Amino acid sequence: MKRILVTGGAGFIGANFVRHLLGHSDAMITVLDKLTYAGNRGSLHGLDEQRVQLVVGDIADANLVDELVSYHDAVVHFAAESHNDNSLLDPGRFVQTNVLGSFTLLEAVRRHDVRFHHVSTDEVYGDLALDDADRFTEDSAYNPSSPYSSTKAASDMLVRAWVRSYGIRATISNCSNNYGPFQHVEKFIPRQITNVLIGRRARLYGHGNNVRDWIHVEDHCRAVALILERGTIGSTYLVGADGERDNLSVLQLILARMECDPSDFDQVIDRPGHDLRYALDASLLRKELGWAPLHQDFASGLDQTIDWYREHRAWWEPLKAETERRYALREAI
Ligand code: NAD
Ligand code: TDX
């Protein structure tokens, strides 16, 4: 596969995926990214300009998308509005990008018969009870809770229908919570790390009992590359690394690794409709494609992530004040 169009490649996971492709293939890469508040040119700085080109544009721009898709061999679709808290305040742009933008890409890959991989989330399955032994599988029923997860669920459904009705060559992956370098400071782990780095107190929603299934972003990128190369057309793969942890434990681990008092945080108003627990079973990906996570030790993955934010203040500092201003409005409601 030679020419790959990566949508959302200036975002957190997309930028890590571009780096993965550069290091593990000889692909030529075009990034299509609108550079919303979440996109960052700086995440692509220093990459080989002979192999990576950034096109600033919207995935819902049908003419631009048609032209770009026409000369690529594959599209890997990361672009999305990705933050649950924002989706509660302004759901319209989630429908616009996640649903209509995905539709626009599907129509273009249909016209040009281009391989498509859709990057989605475990949140489409809703949540699990805290005391439940179950985990999500590819056969779990869709039951999204938030405007964000419902628009991701809608886009998954479009992909499935385009495979069945039009025979497009597509796969889907639904991954659990990612952590690692280049993640926007609005998200849980980088928000707490950067709060400590600027001398603010960390912020926990409610009591912190909610459970997330953490995976290092590099392991997610390796899974996407594998599915793109060897996945069965029409299939859905869950991507997760058996990393269930409750939010309070994650926060206390961050504080401990940063040599802070583990009680040095504020409990703030909980997220409305806050999903209780995500947990997923990645057996299909492991068995069919032989994938396994390389980052098995969460504490050391967290240490590397903390070091990355310590060493890249120029990347995140310009985002921090505006992000915390938005959170202050939320906490004042
Ligand atoms: P992100 O918010 O960091 O990045 C999203 C990128 O998409 C940004 O660069 C943004 O500028 C771009 N974008 C937004 N709207 C666009 C539009 N209309 N046209 C073109 N570009 C646009 O998100 P992320 O965390 O990197 O997530 C990437 C994908 O992975 C999303 O589809 C998300 O649903 C999925 N996902 C994320 C996680 C996670 O833990 N972060 C887990 C599972 C799945
Ligand atoms: O300051 C905070 N305090 C807090 O306790 C923030 C920002 C979050 N939280 C909690 C809410 C969640 O239970 O931490 C948990 C993780 O929150 P987020 O980082 O916002 O992630 P989440 O809502 O779980 O969704 C993430 O994983 C699935 C990504 O943002 C999605 O794009 C992905 O699909």
Write a short abstract of this structure.
This protein is of the alpha/beta class and 333 residues long. The chain has eleven helices and 13 strands.
Account of the protein in words:
The chain has 333 residues and is α/β, with parallel strands linked by helices. It has 2 domains: 3-178 and 215-239, NAD(P)-binding Rossmann-like Domain (Rossmann fold), CATH 3.40.50; 183-211 and 243-274 and 295-322, Alpha-Beta Complex (UDP-galactose 4-epimerase, domain 1). Helices cover 44% and strands 17% of the residues. The protein is globular. The model has no long low-confidence stretch (mean pLDDT 97). Nicotinamide-adenine-dinucleotide is lined by residues 7-8, 10-14, 32-36, 38-39, 58-60, 78-82, 97, 101, 119-121, 152, 175, 177-178, 184.
Primary descriptors:
alpha/beta; 7-stranded parallel beta sheet; UDP-galactose 4-epimerase, domain 1; two-stranded parallel ribbon; Rossmann fold; 17% strand; single chain; binds thymidine-5'-diphospho-beta-D-xylose; 333 residues; binds nicotinamide-adenine-dinucleotide; 2 domains
Q: What is the third-level CATH name, the topology of the largest domain?
A: Rossmann fold
Approximate strand percentage: 15-25%
H and E string: EHEEHEHHEHEEHEEEHEEHEHHH
Question: What spatial form do the alpha-carbon principal axes imply?
Answer: globular
- Architecture (CATH level 2) name of the largest domain: 3-Layer(aba) Sandwich
Largest sheet: 7 strands, parallel
Structural class: alpha/beta
Strand order of the largest sheet: 3-2-1-4-5-6-11
Average of per-residue pLDDT values: 97
In total, the number of domains comes to 2
SS element count, helices: 11
CATH superfamily of the largest domain: NAD(P)-binding Rossmann-like Domain
Bin the helical content: 40-55%
